[in-house]
Amino acid sequence: MKMRLHVPIFLSLFTLVGFAAKADAALLIGNSDSNTIIVFDESTGTFQGDFITPGLGGLRSPDDLTIGPDGSLYVSSGGNSGGNLFAPAYPQDSAVLRYSLTGEFLGVAASGGGLARPYGNAFAPDGSLFVSSFRTNQILRYDGTTGAFLGVFASDNNGGLGTLNGLNGPNGLLFAPDGSLYVTTEGTVNTATGDLGFLYASQVLRYSPEQVAGLASTETPSVFADQPALLPESPGFISLLGLALAPTEDSLYVSDFAGGIRQYDLAGNLLSVLSTNYTGTLPGTPGSNFIGSLTFGTGANSNDLYAIGFDTANQNIGSVLAYSGAEGSADTFSGSLFTSSSLERPIGVVAAAGVPEPATVAGLMLGLGGLGLARLRQRRLPD
User: Fold this and answer.
1) In what order do the strands lie in the sheet with 240-245?
2) Which pTM was predicted?
3) Between the CA atoms of 345, 351, 354 and 357, what dihedral angle is there, to the nearest 10 degrees?
């Protein structure tokens, strides 16, 4: 009898101590087609498996991924961004979901307040959570601990119909060290009948530290970077999406869903361009590979820039694009490429240190179960 009681305890301790393997340089990647998040080990260049069970916590079409100040993973979720906003079938599950770095669902971090298809999410200097409400042309603010809705931080000031140089289709969010907020916009608006229109320029906007702190009106953000010129690899449009601050904190990298990564200094001057044309599209030919979010790595890879892409000509199978030292060619793709059928139309990516490999998590749950404790466009294409 004693042997039977101690075997599961031994298995649990063995799992915890003997198999506590970690992907110390992990990328967490959101698959918008399979409603899941997977782990990619940036040091070994290998995919480690699912970070969470597909659909866990109601996850649907994950978009932006953020590591919060509490060390948890925050994921924008909420179905198709296209369609008619007023239609009864329009998704009503828009939320930012929270997960532990062992893949456990911790609850809804933000929802309500008019949130309609969240894209970017980021924590402000005061700890509140800012979320882009893509279909209402708003940035909403929530309590970073309780998830309570705190109000509308900014909007297009036109009921979602758009304004010149305004918050038209807000996407990525990034807070800079000085407290300012950078936002990529896709240039989209809602028509009077609730359909999605592409009427304005895709830009990077900036809200000053005073605007972020509530000391100045957010009605007029500054245009940090206007819509840039088309790249040779572009299919004919611009749709700025991801944001990443350089490790030196003196420049900003911006991904374009239609192709390319642009680097700007903090005065908004274009410094360099990185080609993301990993499928080799010829100039003047519509591209088949589209680009999602950006992140810098961790640890020994902290100076390396990573982007996510997927190929519409190959069943939306995705790839990780890695640029050593965030450098490369403006004319041809010159980074490292990791392609896997495990990546199904990926959009969001974030680097996280110390993420247990999925097999380790499964073993841990099995061991704990022995103790009886297991409890378990073509601009941006609509997702």
Assistant:
1) 240-245, 251-256, 261-265, 270-274
2) 0.89
3) 20
